[in-house]
Amino acid sequence: MSATAIPIQDKVDELLAVLDKDIQHIQDSFRWLKELRSLVIKRDYPAASSLLGSIRAQIDSYAANELERKSVREDLANALGCSASQMTLSALEAALPKEKKAQVTDRKTKLRTLINQLRCEYLCTALLLSDCARFNNLLLRALFNFGKKGTLYYKPNGATKRRANTTFVDMKL
Questions:
Q1: What beta strand segments (E) does the chain contain?
Q2: Residue 82: CB partners within 8 Å, gap ≥ 6?
Q3: How many CB atoms are located within 10 Å of the residue 80 CB?
């Protein structure tokens, strides 16, 4: 084994540890979105607010892992003689022996699978929140009659009548 192979092996081990943290973070994000959607459906807003606060705290602590990934990526790029933008997991796989290549391939496959699941969960959560906002807007428009000149009603003889100046309930029978 050459002298440069050992530092590359060490950096690959560091990268694998960082990727394991990334996998855990994606799994946590998946769980958070699922839990958030459940709390919104249950209308448990205090618990949802608490969940969002804990997510913010954990995301701030995850920033250190992102910096570590960037540093390891740059070190690997320098060791392999390419730029950091060209250093991808696929490029790294091509430069590694079989045992390390299999480990990197395994992490890459897990990341792809989890990211696809996370995208689906994110889309479901975004659609739920979008529908909640749409329902709230419809309810507010119905209650406060925003932007309308009056609601059109039909009289028993078939004639139409527009009612204006009604706020919540029309007491006229």
A1: 151-154, 160-163
A2: 91
A3: 17
What is the token pair recorded at 4? 């440069």
How is the chain split among helix, strand and coil, in percent rounded to 5? Answer: 75, 5, 20
Q: 142-168 pLDDT, tens per residue? A: 777 655 555 666 777 877 766 555 555
**CA 114, 127, 137 angle in degrees (round to 5)?**
155
The answer to whether 16 touches 103, Cβ cutoff 8 Å, is: yes
For residues 65 and 15, is the Cβ–Cβ distance under 8 A?
A: no
Structure confidence by residue, pLDDT tens digits, 64-116 = 899 999 999 999 999 888 888 888 998 888 888 888 899 999 999 999 999 99
pLDDT over threshold 90, residue 122: yes
Residues in the chain: 173
* d(C-alpha 77, C-alpha 67), whole Å: 15
Which of the following CATH numbers is that of domain 5-148: 2.60.120, 3.30.60, 1.20.58, 3.90.120?
A: 1.20.58
Q: Do 149 and 156 contact (CB within 8 A), yes or no?
A: no
